[in-house]
Amino acid sequence: MRHLRTVQPADRLPSRLVVTYNLRDIHHIAGTGMAKTETIYVLNGPNLNLLGTREPQTYGHATLADVEKLCIETAAKYALKAECRQSNREGELIDFIHEAHAKKIAGIVFNPGGYSHTSIALHDALVAVQIPTVEVHVSNIHARESFRHHSFTAKAAFATLAGFGIDGYRLAISGLAAKLGVKAKS
Ligand code: CA2
Q1: In whole angstroms, what is the distance from residue 155 CA to residue 153 CA?
Q2: Is 186 a domain residue?
Q3: Is 177 in the pocket of ligand 1 (CB under 6 A)?
Q4: Which of 21, 50, 96, 168 has the greatest number of CB atoms lying within 10 Å of its CB?
């Protein structure tokens, strides 16, 4: 309980009254208007590190670095902090999702790549943590091969975007902000 402080009441107050508060919430309690910055995770799955290097007819010319910059900038418009991770390993993606829960991450934008179509384990991790998640696909998976039409992970997301290219990540963050009740900064 590193952040906890206990305050003994002033003389005039009942002596049994003890106020315990969390230092991280003090801005809310004090009514300073300084809300805690919420963090979202932007997770990209296998092969998305190759974005912009191959198959531009399907995935465009933007790189993963471009995607991550777009996400950080979009999140900042909502006073959200985007932390971006990519992995080619299913278990590591599951670890990121568990970590999101441990760190009280507000939401997840997730492109599980090919694991969307195969991974019950990723679906289960998302269901377990109950963090609002938007699934994003750069390409329109429904207009491609039939094996891409079904997504296990999408069943655990509150929304899915497919076919907007990398703009889908920007739209996903806007939708996630709305879901979290966060308005764009003026
Ligand atoms: O459209 C998407 O975002 C996908 O999630 C991309 C996955 C694919 O398996 C999904 O069906 C749809 C593939 C990852 C991208 O692979 C690349 C390969 C070469 C160049 C760029 C990306």
Answers
A1: 5
A2: no
A3: no
A4: 168
Amino acid at 141: I
The boundaries of the domain holding residue 142 are 38-180
Among 59, 78, 115, 169, the active-site one is 59
Q: Does the active-site annotation cover 98?
A: no
**Residue nearest atom 13 in ligand 1 by C-alpha distance:** 113
Q: Whose CA is nearest to atom 4 of ligand 1?
A: 113
> Which 3 state secondary structure label does DSSP give 80?
strand
Higher local confidence (pLDDT), 13 or 83: 83
Average pLDDT value for the chain:
87
Strands 80-86 and 133-137: unpaired
Q: Find out whether the beta carbon of 51 lies less than 6 Å from any atom of ligand 1.
A: yes
Residue 142 has pLDDT above 70, yes or no: yes
Q: Is-catalytic flag, 59?
A: yes
Residues 147, 75, single domain; the answer is yes
